[in-house]
Write a structure and sequence with these properties.
Elements lengths: L1 E6 L7 H5 L7 E5 L2 E10 L4 E9 L1 H8 L21 H10 L1 H5 L6 H4 L3 E11 L4 H8 L5 E8 L9 E13 L1 H16 L9 H9 L10 H8 L6 H12 L18 H16 L3 E5 L5 H9 L4 E6 L2 H10 L7 H6 E5 L14 E5 L10 H12 L3 E7 L24 H15 L1 E8 L10 E8 L1
Parallel strand pairs: 8-9, 8-11, 9-10, 11-12
Antiparallel strand pairs: 1-4, 1-5, 2-3, 3-4, 5-7, 6-7, 12-14, 13-14
Helix pairs in contact: 3-7, 7-9, 8-10, 9-10
Length: 458
């Protein structure tokens, strides 16, 4: 089982820094059912290729399946696992290149943050649905896809093609994004995980798919097949993905009510409605992420000064691309400002705005740091109006299969009573008046899935 990653970025040997694997060494990593080897077939300034080779032990693989899997006798030992790119390759790739997947590179961080020319070669990818599905899955991510079917037997052409394809992907992609895409997409073509799937598999999918999966046109297909159609898990994944994107999930709405605009769209609409009523001359989106709300503010309101800030540079880059900043006219560019900052530290750039938005941000802050955020936003920055949305934990019982918080990065989620206590206290301490409302479908007992507070300076 083999996969190769090639770049022609100059110097191409910087690939070794990005992968944390030296081009002059052969490195081996023991996996539960196989041995993973990383080596470089070529390493020059013009072109560098890293190869990940898996040597599968059928006996170890059969033992690893345990008692949960039925005994299919010879099929346990004679199968395509040693040769085809499946979940075993994805798991090994995630383990061997775990640091590269995070996008961190201490010695080449600027390069790790940038798209570079990449070529991914997968000699044997199982796909029963044909090359069209491979293109539909990889194409929207910016890859140019070449998928050649592999004959059942070259000596007997009348037998036709097998279900395996030799796949080559080329494109200018950030390496961390490419690795996370492969981690998610390789198993979905085979739909047969080599390990027992538990509830945390949804969290793995959302972490690896952050920034690209929610907006993918085939996200439901990817989620369902990545989870090997495990009962319940794929429905939970689709619901949580729908909440992250501006689209409606036709099969499993994010809310238990009949099909309506997604909760994310409802939040945007609610915030925009407040902004239109205020007619501010300036607004700042604290924790703007990839710029979804900013794009609507720029397009749908006449606010002269629109600013977004986020602690994540990768999210700001996505916002930059989403807003087509490089293609803006000088007048359009003067209207927009993007910068990196953390809401728990005072920053002069936060001051002087008529309105500020914290949409689904506060629940990502560690509770001991909430006091710092309150002082920075309501005390130091002190905008005339603060619009804040956050999940209503009372509503969580209506999400089938949800156990715990709605997102793995949430540090807490407030009930309506807790949110009321917090917002009343903050308003009183910093000279604001606060009104609260719900966003999304209303349950008579549990309220709405999202709660919103609008703070206005007295």
């Amino acid at each position: 089982m083999l996969i190769t990653i090639t770049t022609t970025h100059r110097p191409a040997t910087d690939l070794g820094y990005l992968l944390y694997k030296h081009p002059e060494r052969v490195q081996r990593f023991d996996q539960p059912s196989c041995t993973a080897t990383v080596f470089y077939p070529e390493a020059t300034d013009e072109r560098c290729t890293a190869a990940l080779l898996l040597e599968v032990d059928p006996l170890r693989l059969a033992k690893a399946r345990g008692r949960r899997s039925p005994d299919f006798a010879l099929a346990q030992y004679v199968n395509d696992r040693p040769y085809a790119a499946t979940s075993m390759l994805a798991s090994a790739l995630a383990d061997v290149f775990r640091t590269a997947r995070t996008g961190r590179c201490d010695s080449r961080q600027e390069l790790a943050d940038s798209p570079i020319p990449l070529e991914i070669s997968i000699p044997a990818l199982p796909c029963r649905d044909g090359a069209d599905v491979i293109d539909r899955v990889f194409g929207p991510l910016g890859w140019t896809v070449t998928a050649e079917p592999i004959p059942l037997d070259a000596a007997f052409p009348d037998w036709g093609d097998s279900r395996y394809f030799s796949v080559r992907l080329t494109g200018d992609i950030r390496l961390a994004d490419a690795l996370n895409q492969l981690y998610v997409l390789l198993p979905m073509f085979d739909m047969s995980k080599h390990y027992w799937q538990s509830a945390d598999e949804v969290d793995k999918l959302l972490r690896a798919g952050e920034g690209w999966l929610a907006a993918h046109p085939e996200r439901d297909l990817i989620a369902s097949r990545y989870l090997a159609r495990t009962s319940g898990l794929d429905a939970v994944a689709r619901a949580r993905l729908a909440e992250l994107d501006d689209t409606v999930d036709p099969d499993e709405p994010a809310e238990p009510a009949p099909a309506r605009p997604s909760l994310n769209v409802a939040r945007h609409d609610a915030v925009l409605s407040v902004l239109r009523g205020l007619t501010p001359s300036s607004v700042i989106d604290f924790g703007c992420g990839s710029g979804q709300l900013l794009s609507k503010v720029l397009r749908d309101t006449g606010i002269p000064k629109v600013t977004g800030c986020d602690v994540s540079m990768s999210e700001l880059r996505r916002a930059h691309d989403r807003l087509h900043v490089d293609d803006m006219t000088e007048r359009q560019a003067d209207r927009l400002d993007l910068f990196q900052a953390a809401l728990t530290y005072e920053d002069d750039r936060f001051a002087g705005f008529d309105a500020a938005v914290l949409m689904e941000v506060i629940e990502h802050v560690d509770p001991p740091r909430l006091g710092a955020l309150e002082r920075v936003v309501f005390g130091a920055a002190a905008p005339k109006t603060v619009i804040l949305t956050t999940p209503n934990s009372d509503y969580n019982t209506l999400y089938e299969g949800l156990d715990g918080l709605r997102h793995t990065d949430h540090r807490f989620e407030w009930s309506r009573a807790e949110f009321a206590d917090w917002s009343d206290r903050v308003a009183a301490e910093h000279g604001y008046h606060v009104t609260r409302s719900g966003i999304g479908d209303v349950d008579d007992t549990l309220g709405s899935p999202t709660q919103m507070a609008v703070f206005t300076r007295d």
